Amino acid sequence: MMLATVPLVLIVGIAGLLPLAWMAQANRFLRRSKAAAAGTSASAPAAVILPLRGAEATLQHTLAALSVQNYQDYIVHIVIDNDDDPAWSIVRDHLASSHGGTKIVAQTLRLHRPTCSLKLSAQLQALRSLDPRFEIVVFVDADAKPEPHWLRIMTEPFSNPAIGLVSGIRWYWPKDPTLGDLARHAINACAFPIMHRFNIPWGGSMAVRRSALDAAKLPALWRYCFGEDTSCYGPIAALGLRMETVPAATLFNRETISLRDCFRFFVRQFLSVRLHQTGRRRIFLLNTIAFAGLTLACLAVPLGPLLGQPWLAAGGGLIATLYIAGMILGVRCIERNLPRPSAALDTDWPMRLHRQLASVIPALAIAIAALCASMCAKTIVWRGIRYDVTGKGSVRMRDYAPYRARPSGNQSLL
Predict the structure, then answer these.
(1) Cis status, amide bond into 350, omega within 30 of 0
(2) Which strands make up the sheet holding 394-397, listed edge to edge?
(3) Fewer CB within a 10 Å sphere, N or C end of the chain?
């Protein structure tokens, strides 16, 4: 009977430990990037697009950071959801201050397209108003606080004509983490190796060569999309161009989130991959296999003795232990290889071990539940708007309404 369980344990082990191989690959990439971080000067005219719906607690800091980029020729285009949006007061105050200068242009969104997300509606309007002389288009989210060299680092890879798309890295680093914060940190950290392995860009810090954006007809595609990032790589790759991830452009998010909102957040993230990302079937299949392998390994621990198979319990326990220990160690290695921001994070770096251990169960539960929910989701709510998933890769907004909510403290807006 013991011999009969060996193949099952091996299969479950390979499936459950698959993410560790992606983690090791991501760490090798970060170490190589850290060693070769010399860079070249970037000078191509760049346009930064910032869509706003609601006012993040960090918006004032984001605007200040975008105004003082160490880059010679750039402009920031802000498109705000409606005339009464809470973000307008913060933007007006910033433009009226000495920090605004002439680098920021703000306008109200005129057309709330029902066939794409409101974020994409704003980005499309900004793209239509861009001067043709801008050679690089950079997308950024309002909850980021870019370092002064962020824009230069994001545009440096375009000195290589084979690069059409550049992505930074999102890293959550809450100041006084709740259980929801720790779960989001853990899931996001474990998602980075997958994003690197399968070329999934992050729209919160993403740059596209203007000629590639036009050649791939991305604006026409985006009129019927939910997310700009997951729908971007496929058309760019079809042109024979590559994507490059730039660890030096890592943006740290310090907002807080509840466990419930953490689940909702990752359902939306996974849904965007399901709708648009090239190779999405393979991504979902491999992650489903990995989660199934880990779940079976955990179930084998109590079921093995009941079935008279102690070796099954021992094998399952070993696999689960290796998975959790390997992921914790992998995340710690990633954090050691990521560039720390110039401003102190006023907390330990990497994340303290006891906090990582506390996040294991909620992170695994939320990740598995969110993956399952996204695979069958027919609707999704984003910033107070409900979207119906109407077909292959398409969504439709039900009813438009202005966004009135304001964040409580440092709470993330969903």
Answers:
(1) yes
(2) 379-382, 385-391, 394-397
(3) N
